[in-house]
Design brief:
The chain is about 30% helix and about 30% strand. The strands form two sheets. Strands 4, 5, 6, 7, 8, 9 and 10 form a seven-stranded mixed sheet that branches. The chain has two domains: about 110 residues, 2-Layer Sandwich (Zincin-like), CATH 3.30.2010; about 90 residues, no CATH class. The chain is built from six helices and ten strands. It is globular and about 55 Å long.
């Protein structure tokens, strides 16, 4: 399924009552077609004189690019509602999916049986938050719905841009530039080959990545 905005709003209100005692004020909710993240919660952060961050203008975005089972969208929405709960209450967590997030996730899972996934690995969270040098990342989806990726050297970018979409079974290809350490230990592709990966995991790895586009003979950040 690809949910409508009305559907997402209806489910927000339902899970707000069920999991958060109706205490969340519904933020602006938007749909997008980004590939790099199924869900995103963001806003304007201001740091006070004590170093505490306060969030305003919070919003939730849900990507409807992929045709997924309903439970995947429920998973994503409730995942983002936990982020929103933490941010709207000015609570401080120790990482994006830190102690507070995991406590709330466990509480919701145990009470209501809602499957919420983050594939939490503390070392991965550190690497996703740590910036190093830019790397070029190709993300591909196949006709059977599986996801793959490759880290590509700059001098192979134009060549692989043309070759990877020609790999048998590849139906959709997106390119990104990322400076996150998580990609540092991935072997750089020397041939147009792809590494299988869970779609949710690569979306998370691409936190902060900028999508690329090819215009004529130029590859640039997508406007």
């Amino acid at each position: 399924m690809r949910p409508t905005l009305d559907y997402i709003i209806e489910k927000f209100d339902y899970y707000n009552q069920l999991c958060f005692d109706g205490k969340l004020q519904r933020p602006p909710i938007m749909l997008n077609t980004r590939y790099s993240a199924m869900g995103q919660t963001g806003g304007q952060g201001q740091i006070d004189e004590k170093g505490k961050i306060h969030w305003t203008d919070l919003r939730i975005e849900i990507s409807v690019r992929r045709d997924l089972p309903e439970y995947e969208y429920i998973d994503t929405l409730v995942h983002e509602m936990i982020h929103y709960y933490i941010m709207s209450n000015d609570l401080e967590d120790d990482s994006p999916h830190g102690t507070l997030f995991r406590q709330k996730m466990k509480e919701i899972t145990n009470k209501y049986g809602i499957r919420i996934t983050i594939d939490y690995d503390p070392s991965e969270e550190i690497q996703i938050a740590t910036r190093t040098r830019n790397r070029f990342i190709c993300v591909a989806e196949t006709t059977d719905g599986h996801s793959y990726f490759a880290v590509v050297a700059k001098n192979k970018l134009f060549e692989f841009w043309e070759l990877i979409p020609q790999i048998e079974g590849v139906s959709d290809v997106h390119w990104y530039v990322s400076d996150r350490q998580i990609f540092e230990n991935v072997p750089v592709a020397v041939s147009p080959a792809l590494i299988p990966i869970d779609a949710g995991k690569i979306h998370h790895y691409l936190t902060g990545a900028r999508e690329l586009e090819k215009v004529g003979e130029i590859i640039r950040e997508k406007k």
